[in-house]
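Re-run with default settings, no changes from the original entry. Doing this only to confirm the output is reproducible before filing.
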Amino acid sequence: MSENICFPAKLTHSHIDNLISKGIKHIFFPYIVYEKNAVGKENNTYNCPIVSSYNVIIKHLKEKYKDITIDNPVFTFKDKKLLKKNCTDYFIKSFNVSSSKFEKAFESAIKARDMFEEDMYNKNWEFYNKAKANNQLIILLAGRPYHTDDLIQHSLANIASHLGATVINEDIARKENYLDGLNSFIVSQWSYINRIENAAFFVARHDNSLHYAQMTSFGCGPDAFLLDDVQDILKRHHKSATFLKIDDIQNAGSLKLRIRSLIESIKLNTNYTQKQNIPFIDTKDFSIKEKHRKILAPFFTDYISPFLPELFKINGYDLEVLPKSDELSAEEGLKYSNNEVCYPATLVVGDIIKALKSGKYDLEKVAAGITQTGGQCRATNYYAIIRKALVDAGFKDVPVVSVSFGENTAKKQDGFHLNWKKTLPIALATILFGDSLSRLYCSTIVRCKEEDKKQVKELHDSYINQVKSLILKEDSKSINSLLEDAVTKFNSFLPSEEIQRAKVGIVGEIFLKYHSFANHNVSDWLLEQNIEVIPPSLIVFFVQTFVNRKVNKQYNIEKQSVPQFVMDFFYKLVKKRIDNCNKVMSKFRYYHPLDNVFELADRVKGILPLYTQFGEGWLLPAEIVNFVQSGVNTVVSLQPFGCIANHIISKGIENKIKELYPNLNYLALDFDNSVTPVNIKNRLLLMLESIK
């Protein structure tokens, strides 16, 4: 297991051992992508990535569990019809259950679940009403389902009860939906976050006999921003939130002290008077009348960020890419975002705050912009984190624009609309050029003469500028022709004799692996050591959606709004562009092709299921395998410290990939504000010793 993963995940290993010690030979450990809707109208109902997919880690412990069958079929509780198909696939096909017996069992199970939820709801209200009648203090102790376990919660509920409090949970608010008002920053993304936030609103709107406490596990990625939002909700209603951080500690004395202090302080505060609620303050909407504003975008990568102003300009928007992050960005980010949120969020927030504080911009004429994937990763909530940071920093009148493709998880932004039909062809050509240019540069700079290095860098920069002008003309054909010219020019700087260099492939979290300040210039440093860097390809990150849609349909995880033949048609168009790009690049003497995404998907089968789609998902291990199979045996994975996705898709599958490919030399590097360049360089030097 990963050393900084949450306590419930650590406990899973012992739980499986416990079952086996009782003679169990067949274990059901499902992969659950979506939970049931928590309160009605959420944006989404994802499970936490760890809860969804920890069975992947367990299943790979073959040496330990070689005589045990562990089933991990995929399920969704978001849609009853899809759930029924999931159950049909597993129970009828795996256990040869008759259709009539299955139908009866399925409906009975749905009724049992509904009855359980109704019983929980009624019992909470029974305890609540009895406590109110007896003037007894009440604590809503919120948490995830695993927090009901006595060991995980260290008996906190019992401790509070013994001290005279009536303890209820978030099920009391199950039938009330407080999320529709959008009086919070958070994107309603994960089912249990939605339930907890809904419960916080419930407590906030009741009198002072009801108080709020929440159990949270150390290392919980979603809670890094949920806790801030819950605290803000209760503060606006003149209530406090008590957060109880739980780990695998032996002595729970500090937790008991927190509970005792909470109850004693509540008892002393008997002179509470109702106060007027503090209004929720959010950033300004990006309405039609705000369309004139300059959109400030955080820097992302040397091979895409320079082209963004032109891509937005053809849509009628003025966008400026901010300078690359620096130490001040990190400082401002730490000041205005939760310190446990991932490092990319810290830098993105810091870049925007730093720019607005600089005095360079008229605050009535600028907006901030950020992308949203809408997926299971925390990155979807960067949009919320930025809005909260701007309000806290005094920039509430600066709108925040969400740039997303597909389902929009933003608040109202009538003034922002990209014409994707016009933008996608030129954007595709630009991304392909950026991917290709990065490979041309990295392969040439480690082989050209020392006196030519400056010219190679200037050549690289000149192509960036030429592409910008072609984007404004919406001339994707000329961008393709420019790539032919680039191949010829970079070839001209290569010595006539064949020069072999040790190669290192780069994978990892999308921000870390591209953003040179965030990763302490790993690629440049390797190039300086005469190591050929094979940079990551951005195009496959986007086109993996064609694989994901097929997989989600195959496993009945999501309903498809666009017919498959339409998606197949679009993929053929995209693949044709990629094939043409590879055809041009094949004339480069040290050619590394852009990969076929469906071939990448085939390479990862047996390592983790293709419905593992959070973060970089199955694509990250697929890229590692692809490197090894193409002769690049040294791979560096760059990731934020504490990234919940990488517990599974990077660190979690490391041993499995090494088992399949023993020649792999794999180095996972974690980054946050405290990591020093010296530490990173030392680990890279140790890695290089093994490949020289």
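The longest helix spans residues 99-133. Residues 102 and 242 are 45 Å apart (CA to CA).
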